[in-house]
Amino acid sequence: MITKEELDKLANKYETKDFIKDDPILFPHRGKTKEDKELYGFIASLFAYGNRKMFIKKLEDLDIRADNDIKNYILNGDFSNLKGMEYRFSKDTDIIPVFKILHKLYSESKGLEELFSYGFNSDNFLQTVVDYFYSNAPKTAGQGFYHMIPNPANGGAMKRMNMFLRWMVRKSVVDLGIWEFMKPKDLLIPLDVHVARVSRYMGLLERKSNDFKAVLELTNNLKKFCPEDPVKYDFAMFAFGVELNKKQVRSVN
């Protein structure tokens, strides 16, 4: 099993400002207000799957359509210029409802922070958050809508929502740390195929399925190294994968 010293070294190496420019977290960093940052972050997290260059390109397109002012775009409530927009599984009939629900949320409350805070203090954190979107979704919303906002009841890893929470709760040169209703110790590792593969290679994950039980197992193992901030090792997982791929390429060549 990898040691704490090795993990800390990798995390410190990659948790730098240079990390931001090629990661979807660059979008919340554009925000001028807390509401801008959380909206940019939430929307960026919904599209953060598949090819990194492709979804960052799609997010750049979205930002242009929002006139580089996401908060006012959401508050205005006119999303007609999103017609025709698609990204992988999601069509405009899936994407526009998300924006309409965000408009409703910010018109009737303090927005995402209030919703997530309410969920955190409930008996079922992420389910409470997701249920708000589901309860306000139109009947026309299809598979793409439910892919962007997956149901925790299905037992999936909820990678993108955990990633969004990392951005909002952790405070570092990369993560923004603008939400205080929960602490970094309460965060869960954003688990995808890459992180799962690397964590098994490191000896930190035994479970074979990349599901929510695997998220809990890996997070609990990382807490043994840093109980107050286990998700900081998300950077180490990324770093280890990058360095491992370099070694494999060199060995092939």
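(ticket continues) Second input and output from the same batch:
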Amino acid sequence: MKQSGQLIDKLEAESHLTKEEWIWLISDRSPETAEYLFEKSRYWQQKYYGNKVYTRGLIEFTNYCRNDCYYCGIRRSNRAARRYRLTKDQILECCHQGYELGFRTFVLQGGEDSRFSQEMLEDIVSTMKQNWPDCAVTLSLGERTYESYLGLYQAGADRYLLRHETAQEAHYKKLHPPELSLEHRKKCLFQLKEIGYQTGTGFMVGSPGQTPEQLAEDMLFIRELEPHMVGIGPFVPHHDTPFAREQGGTVELTLFLTGLLRVMMPKLLLPATTSLGTIDPRGREKGIQAGANVVMPNLSPVSVRKKYDLYDNKICTGEEAAECRGCLERRMKSIGYELVTDRGDFPGDL
């Protein structure tokens, strides 16, 4: 515990560790180390955000995807997936319902679906901004060209989420088909920041073959990128993928890494992810208590929620939007936090 505690203190003071120090800290963690870490992470969480938890209304508008990532339930070659696309009117109706419920950020998330042209996406974004000018629009549409990202930003998008999934080349190749590259994924992330998006990245915890060394690479990359948001969640297998029989990630390691992220970059927007709540009934509450400050309830029509099936046993697929928000409100209140009506922007400089 002594050396681990010293490394946590160093991280807090300098916002940086060497790769060897990251490996040691991640490998040598213990319940005592975690308790010490979470005291620190909650200090920084409270300093910048108090007991506020921000909501992002998630609209999963298409589950068609041209990619074939080995871990994903909506991968191109999964013929058992029940495909759907929402219309522009359906998307706007989700926003209308969400606004009435107090959401001030909408997250438009989907597979890389070429049926939605650049023009269509820009039209959807600009209409969302015209109809709800006090709201932030976040996009999570995968890898695109610089020109596409710029056009969507100019149409009114404020934020972009693009998880790198793993920052080590060999591990990236284990999780993705040959046509996808870590180099290109990283390039996209730096382009998003250059354009002016509040940029989010993240990775799976406990993905097949993951080691402390690879997690160290993730932390080093995040420090280099300096994103505004980082979303991490446990790997949860999907039954129709090549990783169906792989072991899932753990709540314990996900929480520990959440705490480390908060201490390393105290102003980060950090979601307590749905995947955490999927493998532990109180996973999202535990995520907030480890230093997270964002939750992402689902605004998608109930009729399509089960179809956006990234991993098995995903929670909240049968609930109306109001039920999702009400449930989370009660959950956050039970641990002393408040779900707020707020855009929840990144506070100031990195």
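Agent notes: The beta strands are 52-55, 57-62, 105-110, 136-140, 159-161, 198-205, 229-234, 294-295, 338-340. The chain has 14 helices and nine strands. Closing as not reproducible unless the customer responds.
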